[in-house]
TrEMBL record:
EC number: 1.2.7.4
SMART domains assigned: CO_deh_flav_C
Record has Metal-binding as a keyword: no
Designated name of the protein: Carbon-monoxide dehydrogenase medium subunit
Record keywords: FAD, Flavoprotein, Oxidoreductase
Length: 283
């Protein structure tokens, strides 16, 4: 049973901000509720007031000026069925296919996933690799936060209390892929890796984004492997070397999903596979 709490349904973004200010630091936003409500039942979270944002107009997916703009309230299932997302950012469809089960995907939101900042969250790694921008509104107005600055630690983000994530904007036009190992269908990742590549006509990697989930990467990014790849040829040997570098620099924890040595191995293998798949899509 959760602790007692008050409930308010916001009618607009402005109304949500007013309610958050009115109820103060002990209030929390609820979107799909698939992370927050279990935490409340376990009393790991005990907000005094829940501000329900499900009625807000933040569920569109649009392509504007070479950026896919995804509303914070887009459900996992809607992202998975979006042909715009599938065509322009296949990394998101790869990830969504293996996020949880239909029940969670029908309710959980993209914004809620990012704000939860669970170190195993698949979309956090994908948007970090994409170098997406997150749009937040708060009492001081609107601001844009690079995805790589948004995640400040496990379950911690750059959002201030009273701010709302409203949209995620990701650049299109790059080759991308997401691969994940899970113990059973619909489970959280044992480990996952994703790659976003720009490859020139003469086969040189001009831009690389590599994300890792559940593998202890700082802010979900394998920065050293990205640096290694940029400026060199897009070859199988270099993808394997980038995988080794990603494995060396991540810091996974041992848990019921496996020991450190296994997860480090996964980091290397999955990074190489994600790069290979992204490069094949570029071709
Ligand atoms: C059984 C199960 C299996 C799962 N498996 C996976 C998996 O395999 N991979 C994976 O990545 N995830 C998985 N998840 C997690 C799930 O995808 C997301 O955590 C969940 O969808 C979060 O979104 P939500 O809308 O439910 O957020 P909520 O639970 O409503 O909120 C989560 C947090 O974000 C805050 N928040 C929500 N929206 C906003 C906003 N717009 N602005 C500011 N703050 C906000 C809330 O206050 C809260 O702190 C699983 C969840 C369950 C229950």
């Amino acid at each position: 049973m959760p602790a007692p709490f008050q409930y308010q349904k916001a009618a607009s973004v402005e109304h949500a901000l007013t309610l958050l200010a009115q109820y103060g630091t002990e209030s929390m936003v609820v979107a799909g509720g698939h992370s927050l409500l279990p935490m409340m039942k376990l009393r790991l979270a005990h907000p005094e007031a829940l501000i329900d944002i499900n009625g807000l107009d933040l569920a569109d997916i649009r392509l504007v000026d070479s950026r896919l703009r995804i509303g914070a309230l887009v459900r996992h299932a809607a992202l998975l069925s979006s042909s715009l997302a599938g065509t322009h950012l296949p990394i998101l469809h790869d990830a969504e296919r293996v996020i949880a089960d239909p029940i969670v995907r029908n309710r959980g939101t993209v914004g809620g996933s990012l704000c939860q900042a669970d170190p195993s969250e698949d979309l956090s790694a994908a948007f970090a690799a994409l170098r997406a921008s997150l749009i937040a509104v708060g009492p001081a107005g609107k601001r844009t936060i690079p995805a790589r600055d948004f995640f400040t630690g496990p379950y911690e983000t750059a959002l201030d209390h009273g701010e709302l994530l409203t949209e995620i904007q990701a650049p299109v036009g790059k080759a991308s892929a997401y691969v994940k190992v899970e113990r059973r269908a619909g489970d959280w990742a044992v480990g996952a890796a994703c790659a976003v590549l720009t490859i020139s006509a003469d086969g040189i990697v001009t831009d690389a984004g590599i994300g890792l989930a559940a593998l202890g990467a700082t802010r979900f990014v394998a920065a050293e492997a990205e640096d290694f790849l940029c400026g060199g040829p897009a070859t199988e040997e270099r993808f394997a070397e980038a995988g080794k570098i990603a494995a060396e620099h991540c810091n996974p924890s041992a848990d019921q999903r496996g020991p450190v040595v296994y997860k480090r191995h996964l980091a290397g293998e999955l990074t190489t596979r994600a790069l290979r798949l992204a490069a094949s899509r570029a071709a």
